[in-house]
Design goal:
The structure holds 2 protein chains of 2 kinds. In chain A, 31% of the residues lie in helices and 24% in strands. Chain A is α/β, with parallel strands linked by helices. Chain B is globular and about 65 Å long. The chains are: A alpha/beta, B alpha/beta.
């Protein structure tokens, strides 16, 4: 079966005064219909840049230098902006941004904002019909439809996040990207929002990319996990493989730095050093300065991204294909 | 027993007045308060790490600041090393501050950008008159080394903007520990940092706590982290302590329905574990008008009826060292 989303050698640079920030480099990633993928990594590893590239929402100084993003058989990177706006963005791929509850416009009611999203992409829809749809969407995300006329300040943080999800689903997208959907929320509210996203994904058979720095969230919500480090995809596999048999030293370190509440009391491990400056990423494997297993080859040669077993990819010299 | 208790808090309240407009205050007829901390009691033993855990708005940060008298308490008593410090003048407090320190959440805002790292760490020493300039410099260099900012001579002459988040937070740790305090409050010290760096900052901080036998209050919303760091945990909700016990006991045998709900909401990094479970509804209510009776009754999955709505449960010891404020355990 052909994947819904096929990212091929994606490379994105940001131009700044001092040169090019190599935010994403040579990423290959596939996502099937109805599949859930967790994209994890530290700040600055390129996870959000990936999302923005897929949405074609890169800021003016960001550019896709190389590679393809094939969505539903079409390469999004080469489509004219006009077509992306009319046919792809929101209609086929929608995004819930980080800190989305602050992304609502305070001077319009929730309903008006959802209606705007619907009618912008489907101008033929009549206002009344759009209102009905907005109410249905609110109901879908667990908000009483009678609150359609409320303003954002009348909603709590969790409700605003739900409203944003409703808005993302306004045009029945096939792919939903959620960028740190629970990060600014309290634990219980975060659990509510994540539960909602998973339920909706199943109900609507959405493909989902969940971007987060919190590996435990991925383990609870996704089927597949992709780990990024300094702009590179270092490991990809089923969540089971990633958590139980991680191959890349970075993945291992990242998992070890997450305390499991039910595990016996233990010291939390850390990865020494800091993520590199992406203006001048380290040579060879980008993780080598922090890697405890670094060998000579790691400093000079970039490890290939290979499939070690079915659907488990890793880029590390320690691993023989 | 009582002599190794370093800090006692009794019936501590902090109500922040709500500022109303002139006409609003006429119409309302009475003053409104945000009841951030509303009658809490706890003891901190020497060398102990106590975790204060709760959602935003539960009053954990306010508690941390009130016990240091950075905010004045409304009522109640704070007893530090057997001495009531609730009404101590600021002048008398100043000499005490040498013994009590705080580490703030945001290392980007808690360090003065115009000061050198060496001066930032040396400032409390100067204020407390703990040595002449050369002694102060020596102390600063020593603590820089202890928080792993090496070579210390180099970090001494840097500015905060030259450091990463993790390094800045280590400066904040160094500043707190340089005066050799006996009691430190850390308010979400690692929540702003990246996951891979968190552990190293925590390790440095906890080593200092152990080495110098410091009593420590660790404020966090991350129950998983608290369980691994703290000896005891107090769970707060809307300004009240709902449950208090050893951290192992709290996780293995939670008694209060709120603690259970919090534990359920913590994601577990294990794909074989049960996935997203039952989640309680709603969000934390406003602390201006907290619910009557038990404050958690509006969201409680084990709501018993009128008693929860009408009568406020007291924090009682149900098992040895395990306190809970819930009517479910009323009869015992």
């Amino acid at each position: 079966m052909k994947p819904l989303l096929d990212i091929n050698d994606l490379t994105v640079y940001y131009k700044i005064l001092r040169g090019y920030v190599k935010a994403v480099e040579g990423v290959n990633l596939q996502l099937r219909k109805g599949e859930t993928l967790g994209l994890a990594g530290e700040s600055g590893c390129g996870k959000t840049t990936m999302a923005l590239s897929i949405m074609r929402l890169l800021p003016p100084n960001g550019r896709i230098v190389r590679g393809k993003i094939i969505f539903d058989g079409e390469d999004i990177t080469t489509l004219p902006e006009d077509r992306v706006r009319k046919e792809i963005r929101w209609k086929k791929i929608a995004i819930v941004f980080q800190g989305a509850m602050n992304a609502l416009n305070p001077v319009y009611s929730i309903g008006e904002q959802i209606i705007e999203a619907i009618r912008f992409h489907e101008p033929e829809v009549h206002k009344d019909e759009a209102l009905e749809r907005a109410k249905k969407l609110l109901e879908l995300v667990g908000i009483d439809p009678s609150r359609v006329d409320n303003y954002p300040h009348e909603f709590s943080g969790g409700m605003r996040q739900r409203a944003m999800i409703a808005m993302a689903l306004a045009c029945n997208p096939k792919l939903l990207i959620a960028d740190e959907p629970g990060t600014a929320l309290d634990v219980i509210v975060q659990a509510q929002v994540l539960k909602l996203i998973v339920e909706l994904q199943k109900k609507l058979n959405l493909s989902l990319i969940l971007i987060t720095h919190d590996l435990s969230i991925i383990s609870e919500t996704c089927e597949k996990a992709a780990i990024m480090y300094a702009g590179k995809l270092v490991e990809y596999g089923s969540v089971y493989k990633i958590f139980k048999e991680p191959l890349h030293p970075y993945t291992q370190g990242l998992i070890a730095s997450f305390p499991d509440i039910y595990a016996p009391k233990a010291e939390i491990k850390s990865i020494e050093g800091q993520p590199p400056d992406l203006l001048n990423p380290p040579s060879g494997c980008r993780f080598h300065p922090r890697c405890q297993y670094a060998m000579d080859i790691c400093r000079v040669k970039e490890p290939p991204y290979v499939e070690v077993e079915k659907e488990h990819f890793v880029a590390c010299h320690l691993v023989k294909s | 027993m009582s002599n190794n208790i370093i800090l006692s808090v009794r019936n501590l309240r902090k109500w922040f007045p709500v500022r109303l407009g002139f006409f609003q205050s006429l119409l309302k007829g009475k003053k409104l308060f945000v009841k951030a901390v509303d009658g809490i009691n706890f003891d901190l033993k020497a060398g102990e790490i106590l975790g204060l855990v709760g959602e935003s708005g539960s009053g954990k940060t306010t508690t941390g600041r009130v016990v240091l008298r950075l905010i004045e308490p409304t009522t109640g008593k704070i007893i530090f090393k057997g001495k009531d410090i609730t009404n101590l003048s600021q002048k008398d407090m100043r000499s005490l501050r040498r013994k009590m320190q705080i580490i703030f959440q945001d290392p980007y805002e808690s360090l003065n950008p115009k000061m050198l790292i060496g001066d930032i760490i040396g400032e409390p020493l100067r204020i407390q008159r703990m040595g002449d300039p050369s002694e102060i410099e020596e102390k600063v260099l020593k603590i820089l080394e202890e928080v792993d900012l090496v070579p210390p001579e180099e970090f001494f002459y840097r500015y905060p903007h030259e450091l990463s988040g993790g390094q800045r937070q280590r400066v904040a740790v160094a500043r707190a520990f340089v005066v050799e305090p006996e009691f430190v409050v850390a308010d979400e010290p690692v929540s702003m940092l990246d996951v891979s760096i968190r552990a190293s900052v925590l390790k440095i901080m906890l080593n200092l706590v152990k080495e110098k036998n410091v009593s420590f209050i660790y404020i966090t919303h991350d129950l998983a982290l608290a369980r691994h760091i703290c000896d005891r945990i107090a769970v707060m909700y809307l300004g009240k302590i709902m449950e208090k016990s050893s951290s192992d006991d709290l996780v293995k045998n939670p008694l209060h329905p709120y603690t259970e709900a919090l534990l359920q909401a913590v994601p577990v990094p294990d794909p074989t574990a049960k996935r997203i479970k039952v989640v309680i509804k709603g969000e934390i209510p406003s602390p201006i008008n907290p619910p009557s009776g038990c404050r958690f009754h509006t969201r409680c999955p084990k709501y018993l009826g009128d008693i929860c709505r009408e009568k406020e449960p007291q924090l009682v010891e149900v098992e040895k060292g395990h306190f809970v404020a819930c009517h479910l355990y009323g009869e015992k």
